[in-house]
Description:
Layout: E1 14-15, H1 16-25, H2 34-47, E2 52-55, E3 62-66, H3 69-81, E4 86-88, H4 94-100, E5 107-110, E6 129-132, E7 139-141, E8 155-157, E9 161-163, E10 180-182, E11 203-205, E12 228-230, E13 251-256, E14 273-277, H5 284-291, E15 299-303
Parallel strand pairs: 4-5, 5-6, 6-8, 7-9, 8-10, 10-11, 11-12, 12-13, 13-14, 14-15
Antiparallel strand pairs: 1-3, 2-3
Helix pairs in contact: 1-2
Amino acid sequence: xxxxxxxxxxxxxxxxxxxxxxxxxxxxxxxxxxxxxxxxxxxxxxxxxxxxxxxxxxxxxxxxxxxxxxxxxxxxxxxxxxxxxxxxxxxxxxxxxxxxxxxxxxxxxxxxxxxxxxxxxxxxxxxxxxxxxxxxxxxxxxxxxxxxxxxxxxxxxxxxxxxxxxxxxxxxxxxxxxxxxxxxxxxxxxxxxxxxxxxxxxxxxxxxxxxxxxxxxxxxxxxxxxxxxxxxxxxxxxxxxxxxxxxxxxxxxxxxxxxxxxxxxxxxxxxxxxxxxxxxxxxxxxxxxxxxxxxxxxxxxxxx
Length: 304
């Protein structure tokens, strides 16, 4: 848990929702919910004075954590010693690119889009985690085969990454071991039907940056392990998503009664957080009847 903090840039706020799901995707969690498990691990790091954690407003849950500069140096040093993580920064020459080519590390974090072609290196076949963080320039993915070199990925965070033509490559469907996939603020307007193969996902963030309606195929119903789901704020009018079988969801953001049946919520009894956009055909009374079984619900947002 401590070494995973080496992914993050200096002085950055490390939001617990992302961190806990990174850990879970790596198999570091126990018990009934990812949130409770992550809270326990983080509290232990705080108790040992390895990190500083802040609570969300007056709530009891921790919102983010940070590392003291000295402790971050210890974390980076230990991560390097253990070959736990490789940080790929802006290459200044061909020689530096070769020097940064991954060797034994199973985890990569990219700080520059200019270094992304390093992923074509033949020694990347065993990489389990790829996180894009702290970009200072636009990061474009042009190749449709980009994911074919990363068959064992468990964690893929493509926050703010842009895709040619707004299309997420269908090759992503080959990443059958994925537990975590984030397209938060990414340049994506079309999701491929091949995503139905990502049956082991625990966390899926589709809160993309595109202002136009997003094409979302009806494939989420097959991701039965999902715990966290963030849907696009704007989807095509004809989009129909069947979500009723996602009974393990702990958080569901962006649920729309225009694109899904409100009765899909009946079986999601593990939900703790939910945001719902109500269409004209669904009244508040109809929604209320579908929420009556959600005894664990802590947060509810309604958009009319």
